[in-house]
Write a structure and sequence with these properties.
It contains ten helices and 13 strands. By secondary structure, the chain is α/β, with parallel strands linked by helices. The chain is elongated, with a radius of gyration of 20 Å. It binds adenosine-5-diphosphoribose (APR).
């Protein structure tokens, strides 16, 4: 598949009713099909928020070069030293809530795509920041949880993260003291809403992965799921080839604030090129 934004000359166009209702397709003899509809699943990772001022995890100087996963991002770490784990997330939340961290052009573009695309756009993010929501994305799944929320480790009640998490806080629901933890998925824990995600992957036409290194499963396996289960076209938008780059049919490399708005502009004006019939 060509990887540039320039599209080949178009041939005749025709219309048909497919499994998902109205579809418009432009057939290009022997090259591919330009589609202006189809179900889209987008996966995002830390790279999309980098240009908003948030650290990624595995790039040079990333979060996991400063602190060990086993010390702050596992349930065992929380059991061993809850104060340290809570303070790690309190600090990250304070940094994010400071007002200087705002959605960037890539977050904004994905919200625009969801609003203006004629079919379903499901946005699955591994990020625990709140930038997609702030940009206006609504069909949004936070598979690794949200820093903006706290959860009771005893009754699982979820509440807004209103103040620093400490061992003296009580759960607003069951009243247990000292069991409030961040509503995030730690290593070894089950990501959230997997049924909904696999249902979307299994019926999508286009899968786009943005700003993720492809290191962490199950998200790293979504590209295979979308292509094998749904026969979807797959596209990677990243600063550099990810660990899973070879699994994608098409790729574009550069900063998210450049690539993503250009991709969305192209989608909304020309559509996307599916594999040839
Ligand atoms: N634009 C686009 N991509 C970028 C940019 C940018 N400005 N800056 C960095 N990237 C890319 C990097 O090249 C890298 O491939 O973003 C990716 C970030 O990878 P990771 O740091 O591994 O982050 P992510 O893939 O989201 O990590 C997955 O790992 O530790 C966990 O739970 C954490 O959700 C996270 C998961």
């Amino acid at each position: 598949m060509p990887s540039s934004a320039s599209l080949p000359p178009t041939g005749s166009s025709r219309y048909h009713s497919g499994a998902y209702g109205r579809q418009t397709e432009q057939f290009i003899d022997g090259v591919g099909i330009l589609r202006r509809d189809g179900r889209i699943v987008i996966l995002t990772g830390a790279g999309i928020s980098k240009e908003s001022g948030l650290d990624t995890f595995r790039d040079e100087g990333g979060l996991w070069s400063k602190v060990r996963i086993e010390d702050v991002a596992t349930y065992e770490a929380y059991q061993r030293d809850p104060e340290r784990v809570l303070e790690f997330y309190n600090e990250r939340w304070r940094g994010m809530a400071s007002g200087n961290i705002r959605p960037n052009a890539a977050h904004d573009a994905l919200a625009r795509l969801e609003r203006d695309w004629p079919d379903e756009v499901v946005l699955v993010t591994q990020n625990i920041d709140n930038l997609h929501g702030k940009a206006g994305s609504k069909s949004l799944i936070h598979m690794h949880g949200e820093m903006a929320k706290a959860r009771c480790d005893r009754c699982q009640h979820i509440s807004p993260f209103a103040e620093d998490l400490t061992l003296s806080l009580s759960c607003p629901s069951c009243k247990k003291i000292g069991a409030m933890r961040p509503h995030v998925v730690w290593f070894g824990e089950m990501p959230l809403e997997m049924e909904r995600i696999y249902a979307a992957l299994g019926t999508c036409d286009l899968f786009v992965s943005i700003g993720t290194s492809g290191n962490v499963y199950p998200a790293a396996g979504f590209v295979q799921e979308a292509s094998a289960m749904a026969g979807a076209h797959t596209l990677e938008l990243n600063l550099e080839p990810s660990d899973g780059a070879s699994a994608f049919a098409e790729a574009r490399y550069g900063p998210a604030t450049v690539l993503v708005p250009a991709f969305v502009d192209q989608m909304l004006s020309e559509g996307w090129e599916a594999a040839g019939a």
